[in-house]
Amino acid sequence: MLPKTQNSLISNKELMLKYAHEDCMLSFNLLFKEHNRNMIGYIMYQYGTTEDVAQDIVSQTWEKIIKSKASYKPIAKFRTYLYRILFNTHIDHYRKTRTVQLCSYSFIENSNDFAIDYPNKQFNDILKYEVHLKLSRAIQSLPKQQAVVIKLHYLEGLKVKDIAQITDQSHECAKSRLRYAKKGIKKHLFKSGIDSSIIQYYITEAEDL
Fold first, then answer.
1. What is the per-residue pLDDT across 61-108, written as a single tens digit (0 to 9) for each?
2. Which residues belong to any copy of the RNA polymerase sigma factor 70 region 4 type domain (predicted)?
3. CA angle 33, 35, 38 (to 5 degrees)
């Protein structure tokens, strides 16, 4: 029996390879169990969809993974591979419906019982305090492409190189958009009365390559 993927000797890549080449459903089930709920939460938070729509997008993502498993190559991290398919599936959905917003800030502000264990602890802390309301508005004020990059970086804890692969842009372009997004958020938070020391704590200038 395969061990759980978290804190185990078997990586997500190895599980996917086992599923791709040996049709091991246990491996697929472990991947599904580890990522499915976070994927649904990510789509709901990132794009302001209902849970039903998010579940539909995530289900389509898994279907694509199943259909294309034979061509899987463990070049990038499995999470990068997974979220690139999820990102593209959402784009397809958006093109068909034209009703999905970049992010629903009313959903963030009115949600008291919805929580996701995002890997970036700093952003989790932000969401627990009143400052998250002003932060969400700061992100809303950004150009769409910058907002996507900043949320993938902070919400999903992704590095610039992974963001570049998921969003199909160059490393330098993603890096530049992240830098400008940070500056834009800092400026917006400062104008809204957030103390500069708090801004510096949460929005650092350190590059995550």
1. 999 999 999 999 988 889 889 998 998 898 888 777 754 343 433 333
2. 133-183
3. 115
Q: Which tokens is 21 given?
A: 């080449």
Residues whose CB falls within 8 Å of the CB of residue 20, separated by 6 or more in sequence, listed in order = 69, 70, 72
Contact indicator for 41, 49 with CB cutoff of 8 Å: no
Domain 12-97 in this protein, CATH class: mainly alpha
**Long-range contacts of range 58-65, CB-CB < 8 Å, 24 or more positions apart?**
58/86, 60/89, 60/92, 60/93, 61/85, 61/86, 61/89, 62/32, 62/36, 64/89
Domain extent listing, the chain = 12-97, 118-202
* CATH 1.10.10.10 given to domain 118-202: yes
Q: What is the pLDDT of residues 1-52, one digit of tens each?
A: 444 444 456 899 999 999 999 999 999 999 999 999 999 988 887 777 889 9
Report CA torsion sign: 91, 154, 58, 98.
negative
